[in-house]
Design brief:
By secondary structure, this protein is an alpha+beta fold. The protein has 3 domains: 151 residues, no CATH class; 86 residues, Helix Hairpins (Orthogonal Bundle), CATH 1.10.287; 144 residues, Histidine kinase-like ATPase, C-terminal domain (Heat Shock Protein 90), CATH 3.30.565. The chain has 9 helices and 13 strands. The chain has a 5-stranded antiparallel β-sheet with strand order 1-2-5-4-3. The chain has a 5-stranded mixed β-sheet with strand order 7-9-10-12-11. The protein is rod-shaped, with a radius of gyration of 46 Å. 15% of the residues are buried.
Length: 424
């Protein structure tokens, strides 16, 4: 949920609750004031009746008007002056609510109870009018508040979204400075300044690491090449005994692994730094066929049975990375296979699937794509599948591994950035 949407919801809900509570209080306050006003009217009638009795020494005639009624009755006991509400006083056809004032009158030694009753119809009409006006004002206020939040707050947050979009588009390789919208809001100014500072530090650290990886790889290649050539010469010496030959061969194998490890680490660094930006339409089915042909001798050496089902598939991917991806997966299926085992390769527009026979790994299969996770019997660097995972992540593919019925299965789903041959 977007921040503005959440703020609008909270703000409008809080405003509605406050206005509803205020409206209820306002209704009762207005009603109380009107009741007091009606009581004052009844008091005026009371004063007029008392003055009439004092002047004429007799009761005035009872009246029964449209909204007011007076009545008198002889009382056998003392009468208490009081106000009371009558829910249905029976005026005309309706049964309106009324306000009644009862008070005592004494004439010629006799006690009388005088009552003045006044309809609350006009007061209720006034209250209803006030309520309707209040509801209209509340609706208008909510509408204005909603429009203001939608328009004004969106404009206020434009610098933030501009900075956020720049961060999303930031790329190490292009070294472009993050663009930020000019604003007079201090918080957004601080945000832009912090982001620019962070960007400068990240680019500096990236350049440092990139230069280190490039320089280390370059500097290591020369001594590794010298060591390899010296070992080649030593192995060819005619006076070596069997023990010396085995030791030199072990050194040669270790040197080869070190060379491959250096090359693999450099490749991983380049992929993570997004240095493979160019993509071209690649016919993955053709490349897969070529790769299977290239590794045919390795499969024949282990007497492996190959079955394949390759549909025409075209992807937007770097050719070099696609070649490494297939080489690592197919090579892994050959190395970790049984003698006289099988390999099955399937390629469709939806996925690439490779299965091979072989014993279960001696580590948790969920960790298979982590660096330096390899079988104890493997002579690889432990980076092949990590590189395959990094390549898939770089292009938005999803790679997974499973082991079932003595079959290792690696599947790549092309659910993002997929493009069929007809679409290219």
């Amino acid at each position: 949920m977007r921040l503005i949407t959440k703020y609008n919801r909270i703000n409008i809900i809080a405003t509605v609750i406050v206005l509803m509570l205020a409206s209820i209080c306002y209704y009762f306050i207005v009603r109380y004031v009107l009741i007091r006003q009606l009581d004052n009217t009844l008091k005026v009638e009371e004063a007029e009746i008392i003055n009439y009795v004092k002047t004429n020494n007799k009761l005035p005639e009872a009246t029964n008007y449209r909204d007011q009624r007076t009545s008198f009755e002889e009382a056998s006991q003392a009468v208490i002056r009081k106000f009371e509400n009558i829910s249905a006083c029976g005026y005309h056809e309706g049964r309106d609510a009324c306000r009644k004032l009862s008070f005592p009158i004494r004439i010629n030694g006799k006690n009388y109870k005088a009552s003045v009753t006044k309809s609350e119809e006009e007061m209720e009409d006034l209250v209803q009018m006030i309520v309707f006006i209040t509801i209209g004002i509340i609706i208008l206020l909510l509408l204005i508040l909603f429009i203001t939040n939608r328009v004004l707050l969106r404009r206020l947050w434009e610098p933030f979204y501009s900075t956020l979009q720049s961060i999303k588009q930031f790329n190490f390789s292009n070294k472009q400075t993050l663009s930020s919208q000019q604003t007079d809001i201090e918080e957004f100014k601080d945000l832009n300044a912090t982001v620019n500072t962070m960007q400068s530090r990240i680019i500096k650290d990236y350049e440092t690491l990139k230069n280190f990886a490039d320089n280390a790889s370059h500097e290591m290649q020369t001594p590794l090449a010298i060591l390899n050539s010296k070992l080649d010469l030593l192995i060819q010496e005619p006076n070596l005994n069997e023990s010396q030959t085995k030791q030199l061969q072990s050194m040669y194998d270790a040197m080869s692994r070190l060379t491959n490890l250096n090359r693999s680490l450099l490749l991983l660094t380049k992929i993570e730094n997004n240095q493979f930006k160019t993509t071209t339409p690649l016919q993955l089915d053709v490349l897969t066929k070529d790769k299977l042909n290239q590794l045919e001798d390795m499969m024949l050496a282990k007497h492996l049975e190959l079955t394949s089902s390759l549909q025409p598939v075209t992807l937007q991917i770097d050719h070099y990375l696609a070649d490494i991806l297939l080489n690592n997966l197919i090579g892994n299926a050959i190395r970790h296979n049984n003698e006289n085992g099988m390999i099955d390769v399937t390629l469709t527009n939806e996925h690439f699937l490779i299965k091979n026979t072989g014993p279960a790994f001696d580590f948790d299969g969920s960790l298979i794509f982590e660096r330096f996770k390899k079988n104890n019997s493997s002579d690889g660097t432990g980076l092949g599948l990590a590189i395959a995972k990094q390549i898939c992540d770089n292009y938005g593919f999803e790679i997974s591994y499973s082991y079932k019925d003595d079959l290792h299965s690696f599947e790549i789903l092309f659910h993002r950035k997929r493009q069929s041959r007809n679409e290219v």
